[in-house]
Every structure is written in structure tokens, then in C-alpha cells.
Amino acid sequence: MIEPDARTRHLLLRLFETAVESAHPRHCLAPHLPEPPAGRLILLAAGKAGASMAAVAAAHYRRLGQHDIAGLAVCRHGYGEPVDGIEVVEAGHPVPDAAGVAATERVLDLARGAGADDLVLVLLSGGGSANWIAPAPGLPLSAKQALTKALLRSGADIGEINTVRKHLSRIKGGRLAVAAAPARLLTLAISDVPHDDPSVIASGPTVPDPTSLADARAVLARRGIEPGPEVAALLADPASESPKPGDPAFDRSEYRIVSRPADMIAAVSEAVRAAGYEPISLGPDLEGEAREVAAAHAEMAKELKAAGRKAALISGGELTVTIRGEGGRGGPNQEYALALALALGGAEGIAAIAGDTDGTDGGAGSASDPAGALVDPTLLVRASARSLDAADCLAANDSTTFFDRTGDLVVPGPTRTNVNDCRIILVG
């Protein structure tokens, strides 16, 4: 039986670990934490790094003697960790659940109770949109869940999804800032979105919303989604419009990004160079259909190989998958890896890893879902020996089954951070 090259496989996994570690709150958060306030510290955290960010912040302020700390951290199921003096709630992602609704109501209550001398410290990371879920008045959770599933299946990108979410919420799109006024508000965020747009990270709960109700309606029309009656009524109601630039709610609000995909690309590039490869960054903000991007990257890799270069193609961003098959399992990183393998056709001297730095890629919402997959020149031969047809699995959007059976899944478990996808192709 043909076996993959263990040394190359180890290097790819080590590079992926470098990407994840560079974005963990224990390395990037503390330098941005402000001095303790004159009044209370109200710590509100959300997303896949919600608990880990809260743990770093709470420990920091305890060391400074700040003991008047209230707050709540909401994270994805399986991503929790103990936080000194702060409750942690695990909630649904990518489809929101009742635990997220109950926790978000308490977050809003904490924000509304803040006074002018208090500091509301908001710690945001990818996944916060699903974890902080406060449906607009008259919108049942079931209707919002159904809409989220429809948007995910349609291939809508994160910007489109959040445009709709922000107009169906009582916390997203700047509404948390409205609740917290007149307190000082500081948001520290780990970016998981292309171009690091604060209005997109966790659906921008503390910043003005540049999108409109008309934009939200246009997303649904463009993606062929017929909204239910409750959604349609809210998106037609001017009262559902989100707060815009110039709203006094933002007068005492500040926003800083503490880690971004570009920082992850830089860390991986340094590690790649140390391993003897020429790093070639394709950018931190890639978007597009996973299988199409993979085909383009395969051509780049083959050109580098033909030129005799020892190099690494490194990219970040967030790719999408349009569901075509029924019953398949997988996410954009696994689909990218499968499409890349097909496009490379077993080309010698080229190996790759594609994974989501949050530790899970698509899947059923379990913390044990795979983050991505590995590709090497032996993959298609090994698959054929197991009666696996890569093209059939790609057509069925069933990349998880393929890589599970070949033994090439990347399963790190919850990483408690998220700067989106990390893709590395080693050439030579």
C-alpha cells in the first residue's frame, strides 16, 4: 500500500498549528486591554474565542486588582473554558439555538445597566453572529433558524448573511452600542472576515451599520430565497433599520482589531521561510467558490513546480460552497482540498493543507468536526484502492467521507480562536 510522506505531512500540520497559535488570545489580546475604569468593568464576549478572550481579560484585570467585574461570555458549543468570575454559556453555531437567545437577553440587560463611569468591554470573534442571537420583535427563533439554513445552503458569503442578520436582530448592526450608552464602550476583536470590516465581524454589534433594509432584501432575491411572512414583514418595516454613522450611541465607542488574517499569513510565511521554502502570499482575504479557487491554485502550483522553485503558496480568507449534492458532509476547506487534489492529478512534489483556524470546517455543528484536510501526490491512488471516486465525492459535496476514509482529515478540535481559513501548498 502506498503511504503519504510522513515528513511533509508533519510539516504541513506544524504550519497549520503556527497559524492557529498566532491568533490565540493569550498572544494577541493583553497588549490592547485598557486601564481599569473608575466605575465597573462589564465584560461581554462572543464567538469561538469568546471564552478564551474573556479568560485572558479577566485574569489581566484580577492581577491589576480590579475585582468589580461583571459579565458574560457566549461561545460555540465545545469552545468553553473556565473564566474567573465570569459565566460562560455555550450556544449554537452556525445555526443559533435557545441557549444563545437566553444568554443574549442577559448580555443586553448587562449593557443597559451600565453607567457613565463604567467600561463595557466587548470581546468579539468569529461565530459571534450566531452566538449573540436576539431576534427582532415578532420573529420566532425557528424562523431565524430556517433563514440561516437557507442562506448557508445558497452559497451566500458572510457579508451577505450578516446584511440580512443585522436587520432581524436587537443586538447586531450597532444595537449593542445603543443599549450600552452612555457608558464608555471598547470593542476588541479577532477578525475572521475578508478585509477586516468591523461591521461584518460578528455582525457589527457595536459599530454603525453601512447596510440597509433594501440591501437585505436584495441578498434574499439574489440568492433565490423566499422569506417567510415574519421575515418579509420586518424587512419591509422602516422601524427595522439599523443605527447609522452619526448616531450619538457611538460617541463614546472605540473599536480595535487585535488579530487578523494578515497576521496569520505573516506568521506562517516566517515559519515557511525557516523550513526552507520561498513564501508566496496569495493574500488574507480570498473569497469565491472553493472548487474554483482550488483549480486556480493548482495551476499556480504546477507552474512553480515546472520552474523548479521550492515555494509555498499561502492564502487566507473565507471560501464558500454551493450545495449541489444531497446528504454530503464537508465544508469549504475540505471541498477546496478535494478539488485541489483532482486538479493536481497526483502531480509529484506538491502537497497541501487547507483548514479553518477555528478547528471546524462545515460539518453538523459538532466541536469534533474536522477543520480541513491534507493533500499529497499519493492521495488519489490511495483513494482508488479504497474504491473511492474523488470526482463523485466532489459532485456530491461529500468531502468529509472521502478524506475520512483516506485518513487525511485534519481534526485539531476546538482551537478557541478564529482568523478564518489557512491554505498552504508546498511545492518542491
TrEMBL record:
Signal peptide: none annotated. One of its GO terms (molecular function) is glycerate kinase activity. The keyword Kinase applies. It comes from the Bacteria. SUPFAM superfamilies: GckA/TtuD-like. Residues 312-421 form the MOFRL domain. Residues 12-235 form the MOFRL-associated domain. GO terms for cellular component: cytoplasm. Keywords: Kinase, Transferase. This is Glycerate 2-kinase. It holds the Pfam family MOFRL. InterPro entries: GK-like_C_sf, GK_N_sf, MOFRL, MOFRL_assoc_dom, MOFRL_protein. PANTHER family: GLYCERATE KINASE. Gene3D superfamilies: Glycerate kinase, MOFRL-like N-terminal domain, MOFRL domain.
